[in-house]
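Project standup — Tuesday

K.O.: blocked on the structure for the chain from last sprint. Re-posting the sequence here as requested.
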Amino acid sequence: MLEVGFAGIHAVPLEIAGWDVVVLEPDGAQAMRACERGARVVERSEGHFDAVVAPVGADLSGIDAAKVVLVDERGTASIAG
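H.V.: unblocked you, prediction finished:
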C-alpha cells in the first residue's frame, strides 16, 4: 500500500493490520515526521500497489494502484478503482 501526503500517520496502523506500507511525502518536513513515526519513506513511487491512500486533490499521476482511497478534510474516505 502507498500512503501519499499524510506524513505517515496511516503507516503503522496499516502495517499492524497486515499491509506492507510505503509513504510518499512530497513535503520534506512531513517526510521527516513520517520517518520519526517509523514509516518507510520513498521519494517516488515505483511498481504496482494494491491501494493508495491520499488526500482529495492529491496528484496521483504516475502511481499504479488497483484501488484509490481518497480522504477529505473531514476524514471521510471514498474508494475508486
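K.O.: great, moving the ticket to review. The beta strands are 2-4, 22-24, 41-42, 48-55, 64-71, 77-80. The chain has a mean pLDDT of 93.
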